[in-house]
Amino acid sequence: MPPLRDVWVFPYPDLRKDFVFISERYRPPISLLRIHNTLTDSVEEFSPIVPGKVSMYVCGVTVYDDIHMGHARSIIVFDAVARYLRYLGYDVTHVTNFTDVDDKIIRRSAEEGVEPLELSARYIKRYFEDVSRLGVVPATMYPKASESIGDIISMIEEIIANGFGYAAADGSVYFDVSKVENYGRLTNQTVDQLQSSGRIADDPNKRGPLDFALWKAAKPGEISWDSPWGPGRPGWHIECSAMIRSCMGEQIDIHGGGNDLIFPHHEDEILQTEAVTGKPLANYWMHNGMLQVKGHGMSKEEKMSKSLGNFFTVRDVLQKFDGRTVRFYFLNTHYMSPLVYGEDMLAEADAARGRLVNNYRELQSYAKTAPSSTADPSATVEEYRARFCAAMDEDFNTREAIAVMFEMARATNKSMADGTLSREEAEAMLTLIGEFDSILGIMPEDTKDEGLDEIMGILIDLRKELRSRKMYDLSDLIRDRLKEAGFVLEDSAEGAKWKRA
Ligand SMILES: [Zn+2]
Predict the structure, then answer these.
(1) Ligand 1 centre from 78 Cα, in Å?
(2) Which of 23, 107, 473, 498 has the fewest CB atoms within 10 Å, i.e. is most exposed?
(3) 268: CA distance to ligand 1 center in Å?
């Protein structure tokens, strides 16, 4: 099997240089991966629909403001999930959406006097700036609601044709929840329990209180698209069902998102898709726990959210902390656990991560001068790798995986101090840390020099070619731009070499 390559559909090539590329290592897929499935509330063995491939959809953000740390948690958790699946050898299609038309966007754009899609485009660009600083590997596709209107309208037409939807007098379309028998599968609740949960907004156009809007008739002056029911825009839930179908097909392996989306959003996605396909939407539903904030003057914790006004933007946090520290902070907790946000906890994460980084730096300098040995380090490497993978295989337990890295650091600190660590062992440990970090993304950038070597080799060859054609200005431009980026090229008799400045 050839090594894997990611397929990129990434709309901002100017930002792409900032993203971390995963080194392409191949291990045969192992069947030990187990995932907690919200549908059954149990940890199940993972088995994809198509062997060797994984389709994963993660609900994205509504782009009317900068992303906050609560969003960052979900983005980083599913980034690590996608990275680990790729590490296992799966060909992963990871889709995450942008809700770029909704009430909040319309309200905010009216306040600012700009077009809604201009406002959302601004925050999509800023989203990519933020997630690139968090070392997030871009998803395979980023569909937008505003660009999926055709898919959305045809799905609503099919829902109506199959008897699960109705158009109201004002030109809105609703899903008729009374037509389904098993609503509430993710939350394990009956329709009666959901109805009495008190979270349902009143709407005179609805036949039943749990019915939800598939299409919203346009109010005067609002952004709208033509539809068989008159001008309007999509409801929130329908965009995910329509995008999943258009990007990945009728059924996917993993559907992810924050656990605040389970009801009603994910329950409604299930109803919409099943009304059209008659098949389950996703086999595994993964939900990350909420990032909480200490309530004002109370011990009670509440969810970090825009509407509660208790959020910390990623931008603000990144002024004080490295993006890799933010990753460490999130990944050092199980993704399902609630987590209370505090700057003191980020400082703690920074210090803990610093111990791993220091060990890495010491291994680097130790390996340059350490005595060579004939002892084979592969047994030690295999043991650590097996333990790291065992942790990740058990529902992506990144906290346990990081604990294995700390154990490695303690062991090598000791054997470096007493001089029993050989150069071969030190080098093997450095390689292994880089391998683990292709999943976690918490270590310094230069653990990934392996792939960089190839890229620099291409640039060096290109420069040689330019010089042979006497295009010295372009050859110098490459050298100067690399220098600006922190890489020095040294010309010698044997050709050019590169190093970090
Ligand atoms: Zn969704």
Answers:
(1) 14
(2) 473
(3) 9
Examine the domain organization and report whether 408 and 482 are in the same domain.
no
CA of 61 to the centre of ligand 1 (A): 9
Same domain, 14 and 49: yes
Please tell me the distance between residue 186's alpha carbon and the centre of ligand 1 in angstroms: 14
Contacts of 348 (CB under 8 A, 6+ apart): none
Final residue in a domain of this structure, among 300, 323, 341? 341
C-alpha span between 317 and 322 (Å, rounded): 9
pLDDT tens for 235-290 read: 999 999 999 999 999 999 999 999 999 999 999 999 999 999 999 999 999 999 99
Count of CA atoms in the C-beta half-sphere (13 A) of 362: 17
Number of domains in the chain: 3
- The residues placing their C-beta within 5 Å of ligand 1, an ion, are 59, 240
Q: How confident is the model at residue 436 (pLDDT cuts 50, 70, 90)?
A: very high
| Domain assignment of residue 212, yes or no | no
Domain that includes residue 104, residue range:
1-27+45-147+289-341
Average pLDDT over residues 98-116: 95
Per-residue confidence (pLDDT) for residue 6, from 0 to 100: 34
Q: Which pairing describes strands 34-37 and 42-45: parallel, antiparallel, or unpaired?
A: antiparallel
What is d(CA 358, CA 224) in angstroms, rounded to the nearest whole number? 55
Indicate if 72 and 89 belong to the same structural domain.
yes
pLDDT band at 293 (very low <50, low <70, confident <90, very high): confident
**Is residue 36 included in any domain, yes or no?**
no
Mean pLDDT of the chain: 88
Residue 5 Cα to ligand 1 middle (Å): 27
Q: Measure 257 CA to ligand 1 centroid, in angstroms.
A: 8
Helices (H), 45-200: 69-87, 103-112, 116-133, 149-161, 191-195
Q: 59 CA distance to ligand 1 centroid (A)?
A: 4
Asked if 62 and 131 sit in the same domain, the reply is yes
pLDDT band at 451 (very low <50, low <70, confident <90, very high): low
> Tell me, what's the pLDDT at 369?
86
Give per-residue pLDDT as tens, 139-183. Answer: 999 999 999 999 999 999 999 999 999 999 999 999 999 999 888
CATH number for position 137: 3.40.50.620
Q: How many angstroms separate the alpha carbon of residue 382 from the centre of ligand 1?
A: 39
The Å distance, Cα 280 to ligand 1 centre, comes to: 15
Q: How far apart are CA 97 and CA 144, in angstroms?
A: 6
Q: Give the chain's end-to-end CA distance (angstroms, integer).
A: 38
